[in-house]
From TrEMBL:
Keyword Membrane part of the UniProt annotation: no
Matching InterPro entries: PP2C, PPM-type-like_dom_sf, PPM-type_phosphatase-like_dom
Domain of life: Eukaryota
EC number: 3.1.3.16
Keyword Hydrolase recorded: yes
Organism, as annotated: Aegilops tauschii subsp. strangulata
Name the UniProt record assigns to this protein: protein-serine/threonine phosphatase
Ranges for region Disordered: 65-89
Catalytic reaction list: O-phospho-L-seryl-[protein] + H2O = L-seryl-[protein] + phosphate; O-phospho-L-threonyl-[protein] + H2O = L-threonyl-[protein] + phosphate
Domain PPM-type phosphatase, chain residue ranges per copy: 1-153
Amino acid sequence: LFTRQGKKGTNQDAMVAWENFNGRSDTVFCGVFDGHGPHGHLVARKVRDTLPLKLCDLIYCDYGESPTSNSDGSVLEESLSPYPDAEDKSSTFTAQKEEHLEFFDSMKESFRKAFRVMDKELKLHRNIDSICSGTTAVTLIKQVQWNLLLEWL
């Protein structure tokens, strides 16, 4: 990761790329945090250091493991394989699509919850003025197995 100091003063950017997110070899968390205000650099760094851990707890504890993985995190092969039987393909495709929608809805809610918790925590932090300072956060979680499934669908 690289950032270059501009001419405006303190660099308020922070970023993270966390491979093997939550101990899963197929998962990467990425985040870019653009601080603003007098303490924007502190807010951006605090969010960078804390938000991924909150997401780990929420995503994998509140909602369980990904619907296409075994308990050890390995990918279920049948979910990635082409269907040998054309008649079974339609009903299985619909079921998988519903599973994906449920999973993405739970992921979306986990992100929202983590951001709300992070916001509350920042307000309680004595050394950071989060009233006049803040950060824009752009985050994502990439799971290889879901990308393969979405490409196939």
